[in-house]
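Q: Could you fold this chain for me?
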Amino acid sequence: MDVVVVESPAKAKTINKYLGDDYKVMASYGHVRDLPARDGSVRPDDDFAMTYEVDPRAAKRLADIARALRDANHLYLATDPDREGEAISWHVLEALAEKRALPSRLAVRRIAFNEITQRAVIEAMHHPRAIDMDLVNAQQARRALDYLVGFSLSPVLWRKLPGARSAGRVQSVALRLICERELEIEAFEPREYWSVAGMFRTPGGGALQARLTRLGGEKIERFSLPDQAAAARARAAIEAATGFAVAAIEARESRRHPPPPFTTSTLQQEASRKLRLGASHTMRIAQRLYEGVELDGETVGLITYMRTDGVQMADEAIAACRRVVERDYGGCFVPERPRAYRAKAKNAQEAHEAIRPTDLARRPAEVARYLEGDAARLYDLIWKRAVASQMESALIESVGIDIMPAGGGLELRATGSTILFEGFLRLYQEGQDDPRAERGDDEQVLPKVTEGDALAREAVLPSQHFTEPPPLFSEASLVKRLEELGIGRPSTYASIIDVLVERGYARLDRARFVPEDRGRLVTAFLTRFFDRYVEYGFTADLETKLDEISAGRIAWTDVMREFWAAFGKAVADTQGLRVRDVLEALNDSLGPYIFHNDDTSRDPRACAACANGRLSVKIGRYGAFVGCSNYPECRFTRPLTSARGGEGAHVAEPGPRLLGNDPEWGAAVTVRQGPYGTYLQLGEGAEGAKPKRVTVPKGIAADTITLEQASALLALPRLVGTHPETGHEIKAGIGRYGPYLQQEKDYRSLGSVEEVLTIGLNRAVAILAEPKARGRVVATELRNLGDHPEGGAVRVLRGRYGPYVTHGGTNATLPRGVTAEEITLEAALALLRERAAAPKRPPRRRRAAVP
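A: Sure. Below is the predicted structure, expressed as structure tokens.
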């Protein structure tokens, strides 16, 4: 019995059915070896020798493969058909060789296929090859570069910029894109302009709206009417004119061609735009569609390999698309010749097909009953895009009608378009990254008119406009921009996005990336002291060199030596930097962001609490904040708050913000900034006594908190009621470990601040009735996030110290600022991976009993 090694158990099960009982198909579960997370795993002084370790979880799987090889004559390495898959095959082989588990008679072969269908797998088995070491070396070079950057830059950040977590080679560049876009938006000054439109009635009774395009012999440009007064003069000129008629009609036809079938990045972009799916979630669903779904008792791969930047399809797939189009829409929707596409992305590798259905006859409606909601929608998207790519172009007629009065002097133009032939638009239309682009031009379906037709003017409508800043990056537009710049590879985009969010460098707000303060500090530090290594061109050039390595044109160690010679010196040059120097550099580069002030007569860095203090960035135990230079005499501080408190909002002026007087106590309730965050204060306190204060809890925005909410928080703990059986008081409050419920010495955690303020007696009694185990609160399930890639559910539970995610005995606490309602499956998987990789704490030694 010969052995075939693939990556996942789902793929193994499917392929074993194709190959039969003469083969044993086993899963490696991805990488079996990696660089250990410690210094010295890559040694530049030893020609970049790398030390790999077998993942403890992979040791058992390797042992199983080794046992199976004792009676085998062939070992087929059938991992994914890309650099990563090639490297996994090599690592499996190297690990087995170290175990001396490769019998001398064993023939080792590498096979690759682009789709998991019986035809493709059998074809691959008939054409085995050796492991491509050029592809392996390209992956090793990428891994070594990422390791050296991470293990060299991260300690610099920890020492020079306390509170920063780590830096990555590609993630730092993506973060720079997000931060620079935010700076563009903050620096943007809206500019006013006006347009004027006339409403006309045609001889046939049709309505026509036309925009003023020429006045007094001058063409009306975008800013020709800068204010209301100019618009009013233009309006008066139109109203004074008479005898309007159609002066000219211009009509032209144009063709709109279908987009190519999906690549990894375009699939992520469209899934984000149309299905509102994150990049990681999209790739996880696509992986399942690729590996196989059970249809009527048969497991089949529904799509081709989903990590690709090729846009071409196999000839048989193109022929199948054309048959579907002819059968469903008619011969007029089939182009005369099959369409051929070439990738436009920088550094695109077209070794693999585009993402397409493995069988175009499997229509979305037919397979939807076998798929969950998101999987069915994603398959529908892939199927439609592939079929549409082989459809006829849409034919569109664009019409422009020029309108002039009898005396001339001005001109208006009406524009409109009509679809003469739908073509591919009958099936599929590509989404837009910018919501404003979806609105398009204010075009209309125009009524029939001929030159010379008299038109009756009915109204003149001036409209005010303002220029708009560029939009924040969405997942779709960020992936698109990274691809345009040639940064990263198809398989890395999802992980790049995940890392930025997990490290707290950026957050997704209404599906748009907003940089966090921590992210802006890290970006400012890197662009100040490591500018070359976060340049877009430099990072893209490294990607080109990795492609050269995979093509066998340059040696991977040459690329590493060239990189390390300059990068190692840059790291060494930072050793003498003092934290004070770093902070001053950040004050300069982030000044417009941190010390923004609309009052030009006042120094934005002047302390508001003392006469001559100067504000600057400070580093404390809990990260960065703004403080006064006269500390400790002046203890004024405020958070390093982003200028995006709301649409167009700027940093709030320091000092307390009055919400009003508490209705019960009659004292003023204020929102204040402290060194550890935002808090509420009741009054100013009696002589020698501190006023009552409470931290604004997670889940409540300090800038929108109401007096009612603040009073309720200041009144905590609140009396919920008296237990009907015990007669004891039940209270709800917020403590060190979050929201809680209390009866005597019995404490139970609550899920949210909202529950503390609203929980009633019946619900409280029910929670207190839940059993405890060994003195601890029994964890209760808050959410089921979905299936783990290795099987089993990933759940959010509420424990003694708040919500956490769990799977297979691994628990991970939710990060600060993330609630049980907000956590996604992607983020939960990352937390569980990080927790599983963390070193285990040694068991606490019990103290010997004293006799």
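A (continued): The mean pLDDT is 84.
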